[in-house]
Amino acid sequence: MALDAAVMTAVEQLGYRVTVGDVAARAGMNVRQAEQELLALASDVGGTLQVAETGDIAYVLPQDFRGILRAKYLRLRLQEAWQEIWNVVFYIIRASFGIFLVVSIVLIFLAIAAILIAMTTQGGRGNDRGGGGRSGGGGFNVFFFPDFWYFFGGGRRRSYGAQGQRDRGQRGNRNPEKSENDLNFLEGIYSFLFGDGNPNENLEEERWQIIGQAIVKFQGAVTAEQLAPYLDLPNDPNGDEDFMIPVLSRFNGQPQVTDSGDIIYHFPELQVTARKKRKNAVSIPTILEEKQWKFSQASSGQVMAAIALGTVNFIGALMLWSLLGDGTIAAELGGLVAFVQSIFWLLLAYGIGFLGIPLGRYYWLLGVNSRIRDRNTQRQRHAIVLERPSPTLVQKLAAAKQYAGENYVSESDLAYTSEKDLIEQELESSDKIDAEWIKRLEGNS
To answer: Where is the signal peptide (predicted)?
Structure first.
């Protein structure tokens, strides 16, 4: 069966000697699923079982179990190789948008230059071809084309040319925090267009991991209020605690009604551990805080450069559209101009999308982040309730502590372990029993 990566990570973090409850709490997964995955992992890598006299079970796995799995399964090696290949492919995909932008600008303005040169050399004949668009060619040549030349560093007004970049770099070097990220220019273009993915992509995994650790922290017995800061609750739950049902299902918990009629939640299997002082091993946040979406991880300079290049590309496409007119001049000149004319609508669509997509994303993110802030605020309210408990809540918290506890599977109290032969263990057990009886007899005498 396919082994769960979260289980393997949990085993490594917990020191390779674990119980089902340890893994379920650390990985934030269903207790039954954690048990199945742990059994499968122990079977595949030659792990051992340790059974305490109380009947609780600990699993001991070799520290190099990942190496054992890689040697055993070709599929795992292929997955790792594919991940490396995909990283390269995805980088090429991201870089292609920036490359296409540069190519688009170059093609558009080379075609514009060719048309303007042809119009200049042909003189008055140009007025009889190409329609009304070509009659405005001189105006574009005088007013627009020099600005394009300045943009790429041909005059004093350049602001994004090589010297401008060096000037900004020198000013930035005086600031040790000049760079917000490690994106290069091509990656910055992709980030400007499409963003950098959902910052809360693993939110559900994180949620269940925190809830599992919270239950462990309170030694397997909690109230609904103690887990509310990690869940998405309605503004007015009306006293209902139905939101605890998924938690009970995942961690095999049991609701318990106290003498005062309050409900607390008991998780016996998360009380069994193979580690000492487990509840203080991992710190957990006060609330489950969702991260707000950033428009782009690109630096402000990269974003401004992307906007400027996108604007140049779009205006250049409109200028070329005017010069091409009905397409007669492209047929006459042929070559590059004809080629650009044949893909003109693709270039124009890219120019519109390059500016339109980020603009649409910007307004979409305003709504997304507003909802994220509302959810974080709601969780914070539940955390404040827990920090300033009412007398009723104090009573519930005290009742929950009555069910709290921790069963430690000690290696000195094992009834059985698969590491040793059964006969050898029976002999050791017999010696242990004899020693216990001798101790009792000496105490009575």
So the answer is: none
pTM higher than 0.85, yes or no?
A: no
CB 188 within 8 Å of CB 299? yes
Nearest residue to 217 (alpha-carbon basis) of 265, 267, 268, 282: 282
- Count Cβ atoms within 10 A of the Cβ of residue 426 and give its class: 0-12 exposed, 13-18 middle, 19 or more buried: exposed
133-180 pLDDT, tens digit each: 444 444 334 334 444 333 333 444 434 343 444 444 444 444 444 444
In sequence order, what are the beta bridge partners of 76? Answer: none
In tens, the pLDDT along 335-361 reads 888 899 999 999 999 999 999 999 999
Joined tokens for residue 108 = 């558009």
Q: Are strands 254-257 and 407-408 parallel, antiparallel or unpaired?
A: unpaired
CA 292, 294, 298: angle at the middle one, nearest 5?
Answer: 155
Identify the burial level of 203 via C-beta atoms within 10 angstroms of its C-beta, where 0-12 means exposed, 13-18 middle and 19 or more buried.
middle
* Domain 1-72+410-445 -> CATH class: mainly alpha
- Alpha helix stretches (DSSP H) within 152-289: 162-173, 185-194, 203-217, 224-227, 245-251
Q: How far apart are CA 198 and CA 203, in angstroms?
A: 10
d(CA 300, CA 307): 11
**Tokens 């790429």 identify what position?**
152
Residues 6 or more apart in contact with residue 308 via CB below 8 angstroms:
151, 160
CA 72, 73, 77, 79 torsion-angle sign = negative
SS3 387: helix
In angstroms, the CA 42 to CA 65 distance is 9
pLDDT tens column, 249-281: 889 888 888 888 888 999 998 888 877 665 555
Q: How many residues make up the chain in this entry?
A: 445
Q: H-helix or E-strand containing 344?
A: helix 344-387
Are residues 67 and 49 in contact, defined by beta-carbon separation less than 8 angstroms? Answer: no
Say how far apart CA 69 and CA 79 lie, in whole Å: 12
Separation between Cα atoms, residue 106 and residue 108, nearest integer Å: 6
Q: Which of 282, 256, 255, 251 is nearest to 269 (CA)?
A: 251
The domain spans of the chain are 1-72+410-445, 76-198+294-342, 203-289+373-403
